[in-house]
From TrEMBL:
Pfam families recorded: Pyr_redox_2, Pyr_redox_dim
GO biological process, one term: 2-oxoglutarate metabolic process
Primary location group: cytoplasm
Species classification: Bacteria, Pseudomonadati, Pseudomonadota, Gammaproteobacteria, Oceanospirillales
Protein family according to the UniProt entry: Belongs to the class-I pyridine nucleotide-disulfide oxidoreductase family.
Top-tier EC class: oxidoreductase
Active site location: 451
Gene3D superfamilies, A to Z: 3.30.390.30, FAD/NAD(P)-binding domain
GO molecular function terms noted in the UniProt entry: dihydrolipoyl dehydrogenase (NADH) activity; flavin adenine dinucleotide binding
Protein name per the record: Dihydrolipoyl dehydrogenase
Organism the protein comes from: Chromohalobacter moromii
Disulfide bridge partners, by residue number: 49-54
Length: 479
């Protein structure tokens, strides 16, 4: 007789491992299936995010940022360190150490909470059974009252640039370079492309980003996107918009890329090429044909607002379902689903999921941007404030960027907050919390902020919604 669990989670990424821990905390007998194997052949938890995504990329972003600070900016604030040189091997060693600590932490949390870790590839073979195939090919079947599919996503490949080991790589391969490429091409000016391009640009690569779309970061408020494009160009990244890649060829260990733009057919040669054109849900092979769970044409699992699939007792969360492919979105869905399975009422607010691009400066946003609000027929009023007028930002020698608050013109309710600045990913939480509580711009304007702090820029942007910012020229007078 097969082992039986109250909950079996397929996938131990940010959605899956959180769902498993939460379910165990609710007193449910829980197992989590994971197939990820590290370089030593050991099964590890954390999925893409912890192993080849969010965490390792941030380690390299931070080390490369510190290198640029030492090389270009320490002397400006009175620290003479000579000419620093990047030690790529040591940076990679640091990155691997960060990964090890994170994935080890999840394994410890599983043990502490009583989650059974199942090693292998999980497959739903009926609405109440999961088949697990180990590395040795042996299979075992487990019964479950509830199943949570949290299998994540994988990078999208495109026919013009088939992956070629060491030369044409995806986002995972871009984290493994053992030396700085002299000429680096990046296909895609989205979150991943800009972050990875930033890493190697800082360390000395001549980076060219090829983006098929004509608009830069269209999901970001136009004023923030414009500022970002200007700053990234200033840092040395050549971002070519409207550049549609049509083919590639390997010649003498170099990559020749062909693309078309407004000027016709173009060609450029790189030492390495990173393909960052998006991700797709990983649903191949995890569902038996007779299970009855419905997928759309792109492979996403159909779910309702509370992540229920078309089969009772089976849920799907994270990158395999609708919504942004973000680790924190997956985690919150995992908590919601575990709570529902445990008999509690639970839901999540998809309108207040923040997004962050961890470039320097960082770009962060939550809610609507100005152009989307206008397209939706909402009359808005906005307030912006530059970090060049913020005392703490000036003291930090990081005064680039701005904060922008978007509010409903009639009700004053905050519709969105967009920031480009140092630590924007931390500052954006103010907007998330404010929007969760249905705050108005006036609520933020009447809040007492610590001084000096970079968060005061958000305060001033809220004040500026009605023309009342203190530290910039106002267009309106208080009545």
């Amino acid at each position: 007789m097969a082992d039986k669990f109250d909950v079996i989670v397929i996938g131990a990424g940010p959605g899956g491992y959180v769902a498993a821990i939460r379910a165990a905390q609710m007193g449910l007998k829980t197992a989590c299936v994971e197939k990820w194997v590290n370089k030593e052949g050991k099964t590890v938890h954390g999925g893409t995010c912890l192993n080849v995504g969010c965490i390792p990329s941030k380690a390299l972003l931070e080390t490369s940022h510190k290198f640029v600070e030492a090389r270009d900016h320490y002397a400006e604030i009175g620290i003479d360190v000579g000419e620093p040189t990047p030690n790529i091997a040591k940076m990679q060693e640091f990155k691997e150490g960060v990964i090890a600590k994170n994935v080890g932490g999840i394994s410890a949390l599983f043990k502490a909470n009583g989650v059974t870790a199942l090693e292998g590839t999980g497959k739903v073979v009926s609405d109440k059974q999961v088949e697990v195939t180990g590395q040795d090919g042996e299979t075992a079947t487990y019964d479950a009252e509830n199943i949570v599919i949290a299998s994540g996503s994988v990078p999208v490949d495109i026919p013009p640039t088939p992956l070629t080991e060491g030369l044409i790589v995806d986002s995972s391969g871009a984290l493994e370079f053992d030396e700085v490429p002299k000429r680096l091409g990046v296909i895609g000016a989205g979150v991943i492309g800009l972050e990875l391009g930033s890493v190697w640009n800082r360390l000395g690569s001549d980076v060219t980003v090829l983006e098929a779309m004509d608009a830069f970061l269209p999901m970001v408020d136009k004023d923030i996107a414009k500022e970002g494009q200007k700053l990234f160009k200033k840092q040395g990244m050549d971002i070519k918009m409207g550049a549609r890649v049509t083919g590639s060829e390997i010649k003498d260990k170099e990559v020749v890329v062909k693309y078309s733009d407004a000027n016709g057919e173009q060609e450029q040669t790189f030492d390495k090429l990173i393909v960052c054109v998006g991700r797709r849900p990983y649903t191949e092979g995890i569902l038996s044909d007779d299970v009855g769970i419905k997928l759309d044409e792109r492979g996403f699992v159909f779910v309702d607002d509370q992540c229920r699939t078309s089969v009772p007792g089976v849920y799907a969360i994270g990158d395999v379902v609708r919504g942004p492919m973000l680790a924190h979105k997956a985690s919150e869905e995992g908590v919601m689903v575990a709570d529902i399975i445990a008999g509690h009422k639970a839901e999540m607010n998809y309108d207040t999921i923040p997004s962050v691009i961890y470039t320097s400066p960082e770009v962060a946003w939550v809610g609507m941007n100005e152009q989307d609000a206008k397209e939706a027929g909402i009359e808005v009023k906005t307030g912006s404030f530059p970090f060049s007028a913020n005392g703490r930002a000036l003291a930090n020698n990081a005064s680039e960027g701005m904060a922008k608050v978007i509010a409903d013109a009639e009700t004053d309710r905050i519709l969105g907050l967009h920031i480009i600045s140092q630590h924007a990913g931390e500052l954006i939480a103010q907007g998330v919390i404010a929007m969760e509580f249905g705050s108005s711009a006036e609520d933020l304007a009447l809040t007492c902020y610590a001084h000096p702090s970079t968060s005061e820029a958000v305060h001033e942007a809220a004040l500026a919604v009605d023309g009342h910012a203190i530290h910039m020229a106002n267009r309106k007078k208080r009545k």
